[in-house]
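Notebook entry, structure prediction.
Reason for the run: the old model in the group folder had no record of what sequence produced it. Starting over properly, with the input documented here first.
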Amino acid sequence: MKKLFIINTLFILAFVIMSESCSTKKEVLEPKVRLETSYGDIVIKLYPETPLHRDNFMKLVDDGFYDGVLFHRVIAEFMIQTGDPDSKKAKPGQSLGTGDVGYTIPAEFVYPKYYHKKGALAAARQGDQVNPKKASSGCQFYIVEGRKFSDAELDMMEKNMMRRAESNLFNQKVQEKQEEVKRYRIEKSQEKLDALRDSILVEVHKEMADSTAYKYTEQQRADYTTIGGTPHLDGEYTVFGEVIEGLDIVDKISKVKTGSMDRPAEDIKILKAKRVK
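New structure, fully documented this time:
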């Protein structure tokens, strides 16, 4: 009987240790952060599949970097943006949005698993002209507010995505065949140029025919038509987390009166950002 008691006790202890270990591991892989704002609390969780963004964000949180920053860019039915260190001591009406930490984070697109549904947490970045690899800001981020879309609107957006993808693929293949293009131009052979163009188009259409990368998944359509979001940003900015509590606070912030450069007329501040279990 005593031996059985000891075995049972050891089993229970092992189970408890295993449970605590799994819980700790999840906290590391999917950490949660509470943003205590002047409008209320927002709790976000970070995704394990975007470790560069997750680890950088958590370091900044632990360092107190976000304590005192403003939501410096707010656009109704679009998003609320924050993380500019210059906003901590900004004067009324001061233009914000260029402050950073001196480095960027390589893009981590996990699409279509993670996308710009309402409540998505994503990294801000500079435009494609100066940032073709779509690297993220080291500190600025936004939370999606968005709006609801109809199926017809999503159908049109799919077609537009497909057209852009086809155009980009065509240009890429033309670039790969520049030697042929130059030779035919020197020969002044429009016939050969037309034939090359047609052969490239056949390749493009063949590669795009079976592609599902430019079609919304059932879950995306369900979210974009019911809770809303900003689907046109998918694949352009890294989504690395989502709001799990406080979407009503995001709603309130998104509706405030704004002035120049979409800065709220009255300051809205992150009072404290901290880890939560």
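Summary: The chain is about 40% helix and 15% strand.
The old model has been moved to the deprecated folder.
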